[in-house]
Amino acid sequence: MNNTLTHDVLIVGGGGAGVRAAIAAAEASGQVSIGVLSKVYPMRSHTVAAEGGTAAVLREGDHLDLHAKDTIFGSDFLADQDAVEAFVREAPQEVIQLEHWGCPWSRDPDGRVSARPFGGMSLNRTVFAADKTGFHMLHTLFQTSLKYEQIVYYDEWFVSSLLVEEGKACGVAAINLQDGQVRPISAKAIIVCTGGAGRVFPFTTNGWIKTGDGMAMAYRAGVALKDMEFVQYHPTGLPDTGILITEASRGEGGVLKNKDGYRYLQDYGLGPASDTIVRKKMELGPRDILSRAHMKEHEAGRTFEGPYGHYVHLDLTHLGEELIDKKLPFVRELARNYAGIDPVYEPIPVRPVVHYMMGGIDTDAMGRTSLEGLYAAGEVACVSINGANRLGSNSLTECLVFGARVGREATEYALGRDAPASKPLAQLARDEERRIEDRFLKKVEGKERISTIREEMHQTMEKGAGIFRDGKELRETCEVLRTLRERFGDIALTHQDRVFNTELTAALELDFMLDVAETVAHSGLQRQESRGSHTRTDFPKRDDDNFLKHSLAHHTPQGPSITYSPVTITRWPPEERKY
Amino acid sequence: MPEPTITLKVTRYRPGQEKAPSDQLYSVPYHEDWVVLDALNYIKDKIDGSLSFRWSCHMGVCGSCGMMVNGVPKLTCAVFLRDYYPKTIRVEPLENFPIIRDLVIDMSDFMEKLRRIKPWIIRETEKPLAEGEYLQTPEEHETYLPFSMCINCMLCYSACPVYGLNPTFLGPAAIALAHRYNLDSRDEGQKMRQPVIASHEGIWECTFVGECSEVCPKLVDPAAAIQRSKVSTTQDWFKSMLLPWKTK
Lengths: 579, 248
Hints:
The complex is a heterodimer of chains A (579) and B (248). Chain A contains 15 helices and 22 strands. Chain A has 579 residues and is an alpha/beta fold. In chain A, helix 1 packs parallel to helix 10 and helix 12 runs antiparallel to helix 13 (471-488). Chain A has helices at 16-28, 64-74, 81-100, 133-145, 213-220, 248-251, 287-299, 321-327, 329-339, 394-415, 422-441, 450-464, 471-488, 502-526, 544-547, and strands spanning 5-12, 34-38, 54-55, 115-116, 126-127, 151-155, 157-165, 168-176, 181-192, 225-226, 231-237, 255-257, 304-306, 309-315, 348-357, 360-362, 374-376, 381-382, 468-469, 535-536, 549-554, 561-566. With 248 residues, chain B is α+β, with helices and mostly antiparallel strands. Chain B is built from 9 helices and 7 strands; from the N terminus they run ββαβββββαααααααα. In chain B, the strands form 2 sheets. In chain B, strands 2-1-5-3-4 form a 5-stranded mixed sheet. A two-stranded antiparallel ribbon of chain B has the order 6-7. The termini of chain B are far apart.
């Protein structure tokens, strides 16, 4: 059963970054064989849920330097500026490439691709397909990829570990969910594109599948996770479900009001309030500041209280039915179905919700990691262009730009190399098979439930690593996570056969999440400053003297060990971040 | 007051252990705001970890969680318990597909069909990226846009009586997607897709019962795509017979 499957380039994850990487690899060389492993069908990947748009300099009057400056400013100066410059330079061609592949970008009357305002962006540079941008991008990419016969998809294969031999990544062990068998797949180059890890928190816009698998696998293989303390809260999610109500609703003119009907953002350095759209001001401020403002309003007793906690109003009623149906149809559909209100006539209840991990696998601007043969791109990676706070609509572009870069880079690497030896690989896979059997499938004793440990992880992450943090609570969260790690060793499964065992995958995902959660809490505890999304009430100021640097979380049996690396500054020296 | 509950009657099928699917009853807390998927997750987390089903986004866009709910194909993240309460809700795997386990169906047949209809832009010559986008007026954009909304949730295949009888039928979603590319002003590939669509397992089998459009959660209207493909295929045939010089 251990007959090894082999590819030159193996991509783990079939979302925006993964499929873009696959196409780039295929276009780089007709000779490479490309495997794409996804634990779901690729078009289910969470890129599908992105709504508002993708940023690129395409319009007259805009300039690459402006996009770079907005991004760096938004990052609270923690982004690597060389990476940001490469990012903004390659963004336009990637967005046009998607257009050539058929993406149904919304159009201006003259037939050109439209662009809309977005938070923290100084011009209209967010290209969109109504408010289903991620859906259209992912389906366009996936459908386009089907014309390349050299791309082989392994749908519903769950990768459980990276296989490393003699200091090089040489393959993966993966469970084919249909029959439950663990198989080794060898490759010369492996690209991790598994997305973020919002599911370590209880209240998130992220789909069920976003459990940080790739982050944890790279971490266990000795690659550092960078800037993990930076977790983005999106200011506008539905209170019950956490369903995302896109920032585009504010880009199109929607406003946020507290329970007194007051546009409170003017009290948080984002004013003055205006009836017209002013970029980077008020509702078009960056997400970290808007989410904090919401929490401050809550503390001051000026938010609404509902069955699912505090909320404010996102008011679109002045935009009119025609505009909403044309540019925000999904917002209307979601608000009607899941909040029972029609935004044409009533304001939408919203509150901040965990949305995006700025941190991830430490890579350079070509997607390379410290482990030879291992690459990463998309939300799973930390290049870093997002620093301490990502600007909305930069992440879809990041998937395109760095997906394409890493696809080409990994192909070039693979072309010059021999396939890894299959014998040690088969042994590594047998070890993984045994680990899964011993720890999960054949284990008869055990008194912990997956859902109990997951819920306790959620609680401690929200309590200690939420929007406002302090040393005491972060320390407690670190301690709770350690005990959960121990208790995890005592879980028991009720589903012990192999076919489509989603209880086993849930256990493996929880195992990954516990690692990722620890890196978030420990990196947060040690960063004794406030920067971007990371707000320490005990260290309320940004501290460039001590913390203008990336954190790196390294795996040890006792938990994460944190070191630091410098931030690359090219042309934009740090200054106070005021909007 | 005891907490109100609702009963779900769920299909179980464990290959290798059972010859045929059976039903299992689960009682779960009733919440007005819960969708059927929330109840399934409650079962998975609190009652029976061995129940298998697919889901991810919980917002009607990833297309994973299609099942039969009281005999009708539905996204279980988009139907509420309150629409059925207090009656028992019957949850089954999507019809017309082989079952892998419990509520998980085998949709690999669709994935092959998807590739066969060439769902990508086909052009004789490519414009260099440096020359920018292909211009497309809002009207041209609107022409194909509704057919680009398919999330591949398989509800239409489950509702389709033709697919139920003849699994070689290309099916509603695949035909709608081919139609989407044929209608796109940037595309020149209609002739390359036509043989697949017009083949014996293609649109001629469709009896225009329209169930596919009725169950589509994204209002794609595959039935219209199928009818319009029939018309254009017929026109092509007539043109090629009667006006052979016009088809070149």
